[in-house]
Amino acid sequence: MNTAIQAALDHAVQSLKAQGTLPSDWDNTSSLTRTKDRSHGDFASNIAMIASKAAAMKPRDLATQILENLPEVADIAKAEIAGPGFINFFLNADQRFAVLDQIQAQKEQYGKTKANAAKKIQVEFVSANPTSSLHVGHGRGAAYGMTVANLLEATGAKVEREYYVNDAGRQMDILATSTYLRYLELCGQQLVFPKNAYQGDYVKEIAQGIIDKDGDTYVRQVADVYRDVPEDVQYAPELDADGNKVVISGDKEKHIDGLIYNSQNLLNAGYRVFHQAALHAILDDIKDDLGEFGVTFDQWFSEATLTEKIDEALQTLDQRGYLYEKDGNIWFKSTEFGDEKDRVVKRRNGQTTYFASDIAYHLNKLQRGYTDLIDIWGSDHHGYIARVKAAIDAMGYDSSKLTVLLVQFVSLWRGGEMVQMSSRSGQFVTLRDLRKEVGNDAARFYYVMRKSEQHIDFDLDLAVSQSKDNAVYYIQYAHARICRMLEKAATTGVNFDATQARQFAAKLELDAETEILAKLAAYPEVVVRAANHYEPHQVGNYLKELAALFHAWYNENKVLGDDAELSQARLLLSINVQQVLKNGLELLGVSAPESM
């Protein structure tokens, strides 16, 4: 309906331009929104206030002229000027019930549009290093990314979901070497495990798997593994005033790098056994975890496949004059594009940097023909945005195609106290732990109920409570309540047929019923707005409001009463609420149970 009203307003604007009231080049940036108070109509436009300066008229005077040039819209009962110059539109009685026909005709497709049909969008999210299980922070990125992709698909965009697997970097070498050292321990060797190695028990499990398959094939003397390796870091027994460890001697980074170097040279091709065993064990765990969470990807993109693309990207930057050599390193002139400093892309030892891989990866994305790229990163990566966009522009592409959405951290709370997220051994609270405690539905819902850049305090007690304060329970209960109502109708002899019930819709005369109808009609607009702003919480909030309206109405009014026609009308209203709740929950990745 808002489309018809907007078209009428556009017609009025063109008429006023032709009359000289508005400049011919005036750009209409006004908004048409549903009113919160139905005494102000069903829709309200601020067009007269937006255009008043351009027309050199008072908003109310301009609003009068807009109404005079407004073509007749069949479903509008009246339009009137309110306040400083708002134009309020009132739908006629029949139009109030049109949403019931629309929902019944479209069912699970209701709310889906073609608003973004021209777009081919890649959404890259999670992309956690395959070095350990996903923790609760990764879970937020997973839920958020999947829901953003769902919303964009619901508005007609062709969406591809991608996970960037960092399988070629230093962190994977640290994991591979950690696995090798645990392998040596399990084979009876004595050693001091590095402080900067991966400490979790899962590393021992991977090492044991290699022993089970290959025995002691890869055992080398520990003395050779540690030969000429710089001393590991040594800490003072007491923390400093800020609670940080105090370094007495050694260097944990140089120590682990030395162990990596020696392990690679001692094992030669055998080193890849540990690298690949660790990679596949962790990656398979991540895939299983996300799959159980309802998060799937169209592509798992391997960083290791980027070798040629890195050369192409650096050659392109060099040919365009954006690389230079200094102190033996190759630098990218990112400051010429607004970055705070230039960035190294190749070190003096000939190795390319992680940033060079990032450049190549985004070049690969751009060459795949997407209209839009969406990267979802942890908030600690905010400093990378400027340099990646700089590289895109420097290679001759348009960096405005790339949108980077940052996901803030998550704190867990139980019993009014913050839950310790990790121990000194590096064991984080995993996504799997959270899902086991609160369930997939609560996790998916609460992960997206705030803007991505806002911190989340995740209340574990609330997430499992069966009360109206638990929003996901309250929404799901509304859906289940309607299912139960329909079962009761069937068992008490009420023969409900939605098509037949439509003739009695005029009996929905209560203000609460009118409010529910208006809320149902607003759903498609909410989906488009949530998709275009990458804000899934708008859908979550909508569902909370719809559930609250339904529960309040249901508690105050009898659906299955003595008036058979009214009962039919109220059942019709209820099943439409049920359908919209289900549609919205599906976008959020949350189930719509039939009983609770």
From TrEMBL:
It holds the Pfam family DALR_1. GO terms for biological process: arginyl-tRNA aminoacylation. Its main location: cytoplasm. Its EC number is 6.1.1.19. One of its GO terms (cellular component) is cytoplasm. It catalyses: tRNA(Arg) + L-arginine + ATP = L-arginyl-tRNA(Arg) + AMP + diphosphate. It is an enzyme of class 6 (ligase). It comes from the Bacteria. InterPro entries: Arg-tRNA-ligase (IPR001278), Arg-tRNA-synth_N (IPR005148), Arg-tRNA-synth_N_sf (IPR036695), ArgRS_core (IPR035684), DALR_anticod-bd (IPR008909), Rossmann-like_a/b/a_fold (IPR014729), tRNAsynth_Ia_anticodon-bd (IPR009080). Keywords: Aminoacyl-tRNA synthetase, ATP-binding, Cytoplasm, Ligase, Nucleotide-binding, Protein biosynthesis. Residues 3-91 form the Arginyl tRNA synthetase N-terminal domain. A motif ('HIGH' region) lies at residues 128-138. Residues 475-596 form the DALR anticodon binding domain. It is found in: Cytoplasm. CDD domains: ArgRS_core (cd00671). Belongs to the class-I aminoacyl-tRNA synthetase family. Monomer. This is Arginine--tRNA ligase. It comes from Acinetobacter stercoris. The lineage of its organism: Bacteria, Pseudomonadati, Pseudomonadota, Gammaproteobacteria, Moraxellales.
